[in-house]
Amino acid sequence: MKPYLVSLALGLLVGVIYSVFDVKSPAPPTIALVGLFGMLGGEHLIPLARTVIERVWG
């Protein structure tokens, strides 16, 4: 969990620096990031559903 928090903190710091210097971020458009988030969610959906089904009907 710590690497994720460090990554988030550094990303926020870089975002603030970009904002201070009025530089456009080289990050992909928000819609692309939303798509990636959806892919990650979909990747974990089936294993999660299997676990829930096993616990309920187990």
TrEMBL record:
Pfam families: DUF1427
InterPro entries from the UniProt entry: DUF1427 (IPR009872), XapX_domain (IPR020017)
UniProt protein name: DUF1427 family protein
Record organism: Trinickia violacea
Origin organism lineage: Bacteria, Pseudomonadati, Pseudomonadota, Betaproteobacteria, Burkholderiales
